[in-house]
Structure formats: C-alpha cells, structure tokens
Amino acid sequence: MKEIESRTFWGILLIVGGLLFLMQSLGLLMLDNLWPIIFAVPGAVFLYAFIRRRDNWWAVMPGMALLGIGALIAFDQIFPRARGTWGGAIFLGSLAVAFLAVYLRTGTHEWWAIIPAGVLGTLTATILLEPVLGSGFTGGLFMLGMGATFTLVYLLPTQDGRMRWAIYPAAILGGIGVLILITATWLVGIIGPLAIIALGLYLILRRRDGQEER
Questions:
Q1: CA pseudo-torsion sign 114, 120, 122, 124
Q2: pLDDT tens digit string along 113-123?
C-alpha cells in the first residue's frame, strides 16, 4: 500500500512538473521566479520522509540538495552581485547539514557521515572567509577543519567503539594546518630562526653528552 501511494505521489509530481515546463515552452507561464519553489517543494517532501521514519535517513541528502539549489537560485535572483561569494557556500553548506543530520538521526550507526559533513562544512567556511582572510589563511583553516573532522570521528561514539585510527589523520592534518598558518603570518620570521637555534643547541648538547660518555 505504501509503495502504491509513493508511486502515485511521484507520478502526480512528474505530471505537474511536465505541465509547468510545457506551459513555459508555449509561453503561457514564466517560471523564472518560480524555480526556487520548484526545487524547494520536492526537497521538503524528501525531508518529510526523513523526519517521518528513521529508516529513511537517505532522504535528507536529496532533500537538502534540492533545498540548497532552490536557496541558491533565490539568492541569485535577490542578490545577483553576491552570488560569486555566497553561491557555493549555500549549496555546500546545505549538503554539510544533510550529512550531519544523517549522523544525528541514526545515532552511532552511520558514523561515516561525520567525515563528509566535516569536509563540506570546512569548505563552506573557507569559501566565506577567503575574501576576508586571503587564500594563505584559508588554506591553513581548511587543513585545521579536516583535522577537527577526524578528531570528531575519534571522539564520538560508534557501534564498533572508538575509531582510534582517526587520531593519526587528525594529528597530521592539524599539524599541516598549523604550519600553513604560521608561514602565512609574521610568526614565520620568529619561529623559523628559533627552530634553527634550537636545532643548533640540540646538536651541541648531544655532542657533549657523547664526549662525556667516552
């Protein structure tokens, strides 16, 4: 019964969509201002299916994608000059929310959703911050965001217990992010020489220890 109702619903939705496109082709209807609604309505339907049943966790991804496209078109219509800065962030942000919702909805079962949620969320933040901070800083922030994502994979509970392997990419990506941020700021002029001095002191002290042992 549920399968029949689902087919009926999608059949009606396709017929309505086809009629709208036909009317636009015949010049009977202008859809330019209706595109956000056209994308938002099926997106809302997917979200309803996601909220109604826990097993329908997959529905949030097409739902948020469609809502993101609708919001992107609406934003482009209202603020055409800002689409280059905010357009990608709106769509990627909607996908990040979708994967985060998958994890929250399914509890510890679909833990993998944390990774795409973190990656897409980090991309969204870097897109928004790049005009303000510059590419050097945002590159470091992106790596830090990736490190934070794997840190969450390590810390958050899963059905299989703690994902201990995630601490290694978290440390590596976080370290790379710190190095990029250091090289992008005036600190590199201080930390670099201090590191060279520390290395020199280490070599001298190590040589003395070797001579004392003899």
A1: negative
A2: 999 999 999 99
